[in-house]
TrEMBL record:
Species this chain originates from: Pelosinus fermentans JBW45
Protein name per UniProt: Putative transcriptional regulator
GO MF terms held by the record: DNA binding
Taxon lineage: Bacteria, Bacillati, Bacillota, Negativicutes, Selenomonadales
Gene3D superfamilies assigned: lambda repressor-like DNA-binding domains
Transmembrane domains' residue ranges: none
Pfam families: HTH_25 (PF13413), RodZ_C (PF13464)
Ranges where the Cytoskeleton protein RodZ-like C-terminal domain occurs: 175-237
């Protein structure tokens, strides 16, 4: 059975990517990428970082990141996983049923019947008295005030609200294929994930937007209302920056 590192390395080599290209696209240092591929997890600072690196690396390659993390957990704790499966297969023990006390049951049924009759009578008396009193209605509240149009104006025209201001850089990404994408707006990461074909995402910025794509041929770009077509070619790892028009 392949290790986690062997699965990731094999997929990377299939795509013709170097470790340095993976570092640029995912911001994971080369030393950590190499350590994951070789199964040398001790040099990575903590389990949380390790699982995050594995998930992001797998997602970038077009794999299911969560599934790869689950495989890593199973490889680290095979005994625990086997015990959980055995516990799930164990039959449930049935608890012996207590024989009902017919005497007490009959007693409580009789008390319950009397209580229901008393409650029903009280409800009937309350509703009979309330229905005989006609509710008072404020006629002034019933009749709305008439709207008197201004002289010379036949109809009122609603003025639409002013639309919110649009930032200088607007990117619309239309996905035609699965693609891992990381987006930085004004030096701040605002999106990172693997988008699917058919999705459309919009990003805005004051100065610039940088897009890192693992499959540049799977994205059609619209930049400030202008269609630019494909970001790149199919399977191409690409980093591109779009600045404000000055």
């Amino acid at each position: 059975m392949q290790t986690i590192g062997e699965i990731l390395r094999s997929e990377r080599e299939k795509k013709g990517l170097s470790v340095k290209e993976i570092e640029i696209a995912t911001s994971i240092r080369t030393v950590y990428i190499t350590a994951i591929e070789e199964g040398n997890y001790d040099i990575i600072p903590g389990e949380v970082y390790l699982k995050g690196f594995i998930r992001n690396y797998a997602n970038f390659l077009g794999l299911d990141g969560q599934q790869i993390v689950d495989l890593y957990r199973q490889s680290q704790n095979p005994t625990t996983v086997a015990e959980e499966m055995n516990n799930m297969d164990a039959p449930l023990k049935e608890k012996p049923m207590k024989k009902p006390n017919t005497t007490n049951s009959s007693k409580w049924l009789a008390i319950g019947a009397v209580a229901i009759c008393v409650a029903g009578g009280a409800w009937w008396l309350q509703n009979s008295s309330s229905s005989s009193q006609e509710p008072k209605i404020d006629k002034q509240m019933q009749q709305p005030s008439p709207v008197i149009p201004s002289q010379g104006i036949k109809e009122q025209v609603a003025i639409p609200p002013t639309p919110a201001s649009i930032k200088p850089v607007v990117i619309i990404a239309k996905y035609t294929d699965q693609c891992w994408t990381s987006v930085t707006a004004d030096n701040k990461i605002i999106y990172e994930g693997t988008s699917q074909a058919g999705e459309t995402l919009t990003w805005e910025a004051e100065k610039n937007i940088t897009i890192k794509a693992g499959n540049a041929g799977g994205i059609d770009i619209v930049y400030n209302g202008q269609s630019l077509g494909k970001l790149g070619t199919k399977g191409e790892v690409l980093v591109k920056t779009f600045a404000a028009n000055r």
